[in-house]
Specification:
Layout: E1 2-10, H1 14-32, E2 35-40, H2 45-51, H3 57-64, E3 68-73, H4 88-99, E4 103-109, E5 129-135, E6 145-147, E7 152-154, H5 160-175, E8 180-185, H6 191-207, E9 212-217, H7 218-227, E10 234-237, H8 239-249, E11 262-264, E12 271-272, H9 291-303, H10 308-323, H11 341-352
Parallel strand pairs: 1-2, 1-3, 3-12, 5-10, 8-9, 8-10
Antiparallel strand pairs: 4-5, 4-11, 6-7, 11-12
Helix pairs in contact: 1-9, 1-11, 5-6, 7-8, 9-10, 10-11
Length: about 350
């Protein structure tokens, strides 16, 4: 097949890990006979430096004309002044809105060889294979914001249709897994969460009677993710809760550098990025973990291009590279310097061939 992929390296380690993901996609294209055209554009702090806009019109145009978008990370100390009128994160939020990608999928599966990298006891990690479905274009991140010298407010708004569509996405995914769905809210305090719970219960009863449903308050969910992570199958939740819970869940895998994400809407075109940030402290040092970005490329193959065999091949290659002993410093044994970003990618590509 032929496909156009826009690459948005962004800031910090973003350029390093997106280059690795692109190398893997090029290898897949050569091995399976696909033609991938890559178009690189600016986003985040790099875009602010170049033209004063964290999401330039040229970037929007390229993304809208592409079959999929591969993103690195945005932000860093250079642009971290909270009083600044223009910030890198604005570009990412606008991009999600422009593309209409409201469903953020964050899968987490434990590699047995990396159990020692997690701070949790090995027995707690047994059988962990979960998927967090985070609502991505509503809630407090997108609500009206106000501030003066003595107060500030961020409005959290959810409409019924926004909740219905994300719950349907999560429930359909659960039907293809272990048929378990956990909905996370804060209905004992927040009116938006009471709407979330009511809407979720209605949808599940009417359309997904075959799914086992559990409802948890977000604070309880945070606790149970560490005490009984193996019990979870698919978790669905609102924007901010999903952001926080998935960062917490990354510690089950031992490092944020391991985990991918896919942001999807109603069309096949999606936005794919590792869940980690720009990690400015290690930018340019060649030690960033590329696995999350490469696994995001696998999700791109699966969800936007419909190439399941190729996606599975990439995921298997990551597993084989890790089983073969390849480790960047974040997942290496204590005192081990690990391999470089490029060497980790080389190991994964060898396992693809």
């Amino acid at each position: 097949m032929e496909a156009v992929i826009t690459v948005l390296p962004g800031d910090g380690i973003g350029p390093d890990v997106t280059l690795c993901a692109r190398r893997v996609l090029e290898t897949v294209g050569d091995a399976f006979g696909h033609g991938f055209e890559f178009r690189q554009e600016l986003v985040g702090g790099a875009a602010i430096d170049a033209c004063g806009d964290p999401l330039p019109p040229a970037t929007i145009g390229s993304c809208e004309a592409s079959d999929a978008i591969l993103l690195g990370a945005v932000g860093g100390p250079k642009w971290s002044d909270p009083k600044a009128a223009v910030r890198p994160e604005q570009g990412l939020l606008e991009l999600r809105s422009v593309l209409g990608v409201y469903a953020n999928l964050r899968p987490l599966k434990i590699y047995q060889e990396l159990v020692g990298a997690s701070p949790l006891k090995p027995e707690i990690l047994d059988g962990v294979d979960l998927l967090v479905v985070r609502e991505l274009t509503g809630g407090i991140y997108f609500g009206e914001k106000n501030r003066d010298a003595n107060w500030a407010s961020d409005l959290c708004v959810y409409h019924t249709h926004e909740i219905e569509r994300i719950v349907r996405v999560a429930a359909k995914l659960a039907q293809g897994r272990r048929k378990k769905l956990c909905s996370v809210d804060k209905a004992n305090v927040l009116e938006t969460s009471r709407l979330w719970r009511e809407t979720t219960n209605n949808i599940m009863a009417a359309e997904f009677a075959d799914i086992e449903v559990e409802t948890l308050l977000v604070d309880a969910a945070a606790m149970h993710l560490l005490s009984r992570p193996g019990d979870f199958d698919v978790i669905v939740t609102e924007n901010m809760f999903g952001d926080i819970l998935t960062d917490e869940a990354s510690m089950l895998a031992g490092s944020m550098g391991m985990l991918p994400s896919a942001s999807l809407g109603d069309s096949a075109r999606g936005l794919y990025e590792p869940i980690h940030g720009s990690a400015p402290d290690i930018a340019g040092r060649g030690i960033a973990n590329p696995c999350g970005a490469i696994a995001s490329a696998a999700l791109l193959l699966r969800h936007s291009l419909g190439l399941e065999q190729e996606a599975a091949a990439v995921e298997t290659a990551i597993s084989r590279a890790i089983a073969g002993g390849a480790r960047t410093v974040d997942i290496a044994e204590c005192g081990d310097a690990g391999v470089s970003t490029t060497e980790m990618t080389d190991a994964i590509i060898r396992c693809l061939n």
